[in-house]
Amino acid sequence: MATAKYTPRPLGLDREFFQLAVTTGKLHLQHCNACGHHQHPPRRFCAQCGSGDLGFVPTANRGEVYSWTVSHFTVDSGWVDDLPYATVVVQLPEGPRLVGAYTGDASTLAIGQPVSIRPEARTEDYCFFWIDG
Ligand SMILES: [Zn+2]
């Protein structure tokens, strides 16, 4: 029997990252104002140049399939009714990759397939990122 899906309670920069997606409907990435590097997950300093001058910028909620795995079993009973489901790694045009749950038929997935990213608010400061093919 399915229960509610587990919903994390993010803190610090992770909370800011999720709140931006919840309030705007747009995936945001951390952007370095010193060198232009985009990074994910958020950090206190730029992984490219070490600057602490970072901010969040919106994305177009689009990318390409980099990789995926199909789950036929879950330890979180909230996902039982979704089995089997695919967890997809999306290559974003800005450089970083994002992990999300695929909403389509996993047997149709292909490397390089264009996908869109759809944040679904679960709380005021957390969302799932659904990957639509
Ligand atoms: Zn930088």
Task: Write a brief structural summary.
With 133 residues, the chain is mainly beta.
Blueprint of the fold:
Elements: H1 12-24, E1 28-32, E2 38-39, E3 54-58, E4 62-71, E5 85-91, E6 97-102, E7 114-123, E8 126-132
Parallel strand pairs: 6-8
Antiparallel strand pairs: 1-2, 1-3, 4-5, 4-7, 5-6, 7-8
Overview of this structure, please?
The structure is a single chain. The chain has 133 residues and is mainly beta. It has a single domain, classed as Beta Barrel (OB fold (Dihydrolipoamide Acetyltransferase, E2P)). The chain contains one helix and eight strands. It has one helix at residues 12-24; strands spanning 28-32, 38-39, 54-58, 62-71, 85-91, 97-102, 114-123, 126-132. A five-stranded mixed β-barrel has the order 4-5-6-8-7. A hairpin with a 5-residue loop joins strand 1 and strand 2. The longest helix has 13 residues, at 12-24. The chain is globular, with a radius of gyration of 16 Å. The relative contact order is 0.22. It binds zinc ion. Zinc ion binds next to loops.
Cα radius of gyration in angstroms:
16 Å
Q: Any idea of the CATH topology?
A: OB fold (Dihydrolipoamide Acetyltransferase, E2P)
Total number of beta strands: 8
Bound molecules: zinc ion
Domain count: 1
Average pLDDT for all residues: 96
Q: Which CATH class? A: Mainly Beta
Summing up helix and strand content along with how strands pair, one would put the structural category as mainly beta
Shape: globular
Low-confidence sequence ranges: none
Sheet with the most strands: spatial strand order: 4-5-6-8-7
What multimeric state do the chains show?
A: single chain
Q: What order do the helices and strands follow?
A: HEEEEEEEE
Helix content: under 10%
